[in-house]
Amino acid sequence: MLQRVFGRGRRAFEDLSEQEVLALAISSEEDDGRIYRAYAEGLRETFPASAHVFDEMAAEEDTHRQRLIDLHKARFGETIPLIRREHVRGYYERKPDWLVRPLGIEKTRVMAEAMEDQAARFYRAAAARTTDADTRKLLGDLAAAEDSHVSLAQRLGEEHTPEDVRSAEAESERRQFILTYVQPGLAGLMDGSVSTLAPIFAAAFATGDTWTTFLVGLSASVGAGISMGFTEAASDDGVISGRGSPVIRGLVTGLMTTIGGLGHALPYLIPDFWTATTVAIIVVFIELWAITWIQNRYMETPWLRASLQVVVGGALVLAAGILIGNA
């Protein structure tokens, strides 16, 4: 658990040298170019004009990468350190292309805009840390290039993006709300609702005592909330990823984790064992349905996939707890 909390094995961004920052920028541009080409291939059959836009964006990332490589060669030589975004604590992550298929034009637009925003944040943070004039200029130029990209909603054409799409400011606000509150809250609710099922129902069927079961559920819920809250707060300071205050995200995650566990622990305040257990099981399915709804509403996960992931997984953990308690 400590390894998860303190991010052992990852470097803090502020601890990177200027050479390592350049190497990280180079690998990030390589990855983004590949992602844009994957988007282009995923859209080419249905939206050929939009696919061409992403081809051009991939070519632009190649140009950025070459400028960074040229600067690295001039300052540090031919050998580029192997450092990628997964090696840096708090650095933004990219989903593999196969996790976001099938590609819809609107979802692809939103993901690409988030990529541009994250890249601009990174270049601004990197430029602020460098002392070399040429490096600072290039990083500043690349930040400005990402910031000045024409809105993808316009670049992808009016036939794919209706005129009544909410303003860029409203879209940015919604995206920030999801990053700061919805994602951490959903992670906490899922962890609290699912991870506490086995210990609570195992205690219930092993002891048959509602008060003991409630105490087990209370301790498991509070303990999981504290653990998840610290993990979320320590995993990403939000400076580069743009996910917002780590304190807020940690509080949201910890609170929702605790609520997720308490939901099916509180029924065991009812003295009658079978009444309490029946109510607790009903609450479990309400929790799983709520998680499925949030995934579909805010994370754009299809209903069927969200249901299979959450309901089936939760049911298996519930069954495991009951079986262990009856052993």
Q: Can you give a write-up of this model?
A:
With 327 residues, the chain is mainly α. It folds into two domains: 2-165, Ferritin, core subunit, four-helix bundle (Ferritin), CATH 1.20.1260.10; 169-326, no CATH class. The protein contains twelve helices and two strands, in the order αβααβααααααααα. It has a two-stranded parallel ribbon. Helix 4 (105-129) runs antiparallel to helix 5, helix 7 (168-195) runs parallel beside helix 12 (303-326) and helix 8 runs antiparallel to helix 9 (210-235). The chain is elongated and about 75 Å long. The two termini are 28 Å apart. The model is unreliable at 1-7 and 158-162 (pLDDT under 50).
Question: What structural class should be given to the helix and strand makeup?
Answer: mainly alpha
CATH top-level class of the largest domain: Mainly Alpha
Which overall shape is indicated by the principal axes computed on the Cα atoms? elongated
Please report the number of helical segments. Answer: 12
Strand order of the largest sheet: 1-2
* Rg measurement, Å: 24 Å
Please name the fourth-level CATH homologous superfamily of the largest domain: Ferritin, core subunit, four-helix bundle
Give the termini separation: 28 Å
Largest sheet: 2 strands, parallel
Order of helices and strands: HEHHEHHHHHHHHH
Number of domains: 2
Low-confidence stretches: 1-7, 158-162
Helix content: over 70%
Find the count of extended strands (DSSP E, 2+ residues). Answer: 2
Rounded mean pLDDT score = 80
CATH architecture of the largest domain: Up-down Bundle
What name does CATH use for the topology of the largest domain? Answer: Ferritin
Strand content: under 5%
